[in-house]
Write a structure and sequence with these properties.
3 domains; 22 strands; single chain; 440 residues; 2-enoyl-CoA Hydratase, Chain A, domain 1; Pdz3 Domain; Transcription Regulator spoIIAA; six-stranded mixed beta sheet; alpha+beta
């Protein structure tokens, strides 16, 4: 390795120090990622890799009852003859979607390597309710919330198209998934997606019948955050948007801060899951050490790495924490609570540690190894190699976690800023914490 002469090195260090001290030094903006064009050979190889990996390593040797070889052959020409690379990756993803597994999917090079400036999310969720499509979630940090959108509004049109028609078209485009609830998550991904700078027009109806139209311009993707509050009545509230390892420090800090609370609310609504290790660590704040379930693999084989020398099969062993919180605990879930969020809610429910409120969860409790397998052409196949079974609970994949108390947020209440699910949990905590009358 070549080194600079000493005088040049000192000069370089001084210059670096001077530049570091300049408050106005501009931050470099990453260049947008542009995928390389695939050759016909690349397409053939990526298709073959997906078919073989699913055939030989997917968690279920019966492929969830799908005749995998026949399905792969049926998709073959549609995948290989796609008019462009974007459609190629979409069709390959739809092929994997035939497994009806929320975790198994194909990511395009752009999905993997897009910069934050290329990604966006309007922060909205809508769902069909009694023949109407209602906004059920509006992220508080979103442009939509800034412009006055609130949960409970009825959606009439999306980009000038009647919402029923738009929804049906998106349902045809998205890949298969574990449940109808997880399928709706994918459709909402279409609602929220789009290049940064693109626009989405919505026509909506208020509770008084008046209608209005709003245009949203796509903003850069916001990072997930941890939200915690110690409420005046002594209730501690914690919500986080993913089980991401980067949030570990913030979660630990929040839990320590909430330790004096009289009762706790753990809000897992909209949480898609994430890191299994972090999940078992967080369970250690509420449960004593020990196993809460088991990990099932294909043919009961161990998962290995480094040519079989390293056993990387995970377990469901709860990790002890320096402090265990033992206050009454309410857990909130909804249709978008998935994977690790479902595992946590199910384990706390099965152990009798928490009362669960809300709607039946996603039903998406399989697991993947790491980041999946790289494919020719820069894409990636993520597929399920484990299933998680929680002691004392029925199978959750394809079914979901059923709450103790089913609570649905009424549209009128949502428009007034009221959260019926949270209110039910707080009412239960209040009753639980009331002292028992003498002689009662």
């Amino acid at each position: 390795m070549r080194t600079l002469p000493r005088t040049h090195t000192l000069l370089a260090l001084a210059l670096a120090a001077a530049l570091t001290g300049c408050a106005n030094t501009p931050r470099a903006v990453p260049k947008p990622f542009v995928p390389e064009r695939m050759s016909a050979e690349d397409r053939q190889a990526a298709y073959a890799e997906v078919v073989t990996l699913i055939q030989t390593r997917y968690i279920d040797a019966s492929h969830n009852g799908v005749a995998w070889s026949a399905v792969a052959e049926r998709y073959r020409q549609k995948v290989l003859d796609a008019p462009d690379d974007r459609r190629f990756w979409e069709e390959l993803n739809r092929l994997v979607g035939e497994l009806k597994d929320a975790h198994s999917r194909v990511l395009s090079p752009l999905d993997i390597k897009a910069t934050r400036e290329q990604r966006g999310n309007h922060g909205l969720e809508m769902r069909p309710r009694d023949g109407r499509w209602l906004l059920t979630q509006v992220a508080g940090s979103s442009q939509a919330a800034l412009q006055g959108l609130r949960p409970g509004l009825q959606v009439l049109q999306v980009d000038g198209q009647p919402v029923q028609q738009w929804w049906a078209e998106q349902a045809e485009k998205v890949r298969g998934s574990s449940t109808e609830r997880s399928q709706q998550v994918l459709i909402n991904g279409k609602l929220n997606g789009g290049e940064v700078g693109s626009e989405r027009r919505l026509q909506l109806r208020r509770s008084d019948g008046s209608e209005f139209e709003i245009t949203l311009r796509q903003d850069a993707l916001q990072a997930p955050a941890v939200r915690s509050h110690l409420l005046p009545d002594g209730t501690g509230y914690l919500r986080f948007m993913a089980f991401g390892g980067a949030l570990r420090t913030d979660l630990d800090h929040a839990l320590r801060r909430l330790a004096p609370a009289k009762g706790l609310v753990l809000d897992l609504r909209g949480n898609p899951g994430g890191d299994l290790k972090l999940t078992t660590e967080l369970l250690g704040w509420f449960l004593p050490p020990g196993e809460v379930g088991k990990v099932v693999t294909r043919d009961n084989k161990r998962l290995t790495a480094l040519l079989g020398l390293l056993d990387i099969t995970p377990d469901l062993q709860v990790k002890a924490q320096a402090q265990r919180l033992q206050q009454p605990l309410a857990v909130l879930i909804d249709e978008r609570s998935a994977s690790a969020a479902e595992l946590m809610a199910a384990a706390l429910q099965a152990k009798g540690r928490a009362r669960v409120f809300g709607a039946t969860s996603c039903g998406c409790l399989l697991g993947v190894r790491g980041q999946g397998e790289a494919l020719r052409g820069g894409g990636r196949l993520v597929f399920s190699e484990i299933e998680l079974l929680v002691d004392g609970q029925p199978r959750i994949e394809g079914v979901g976690v059923v709450p103790h108390e089913a609570v649905w947020n009424d549209p009128g209440e949502m428009l007034l800023g009221r959260d019926s699910v949270l209110a039910a949990a707080r009412q239960w905590l209040k009753q639980t914490l009331q002292p028992t009358p003498a002689g009662g």
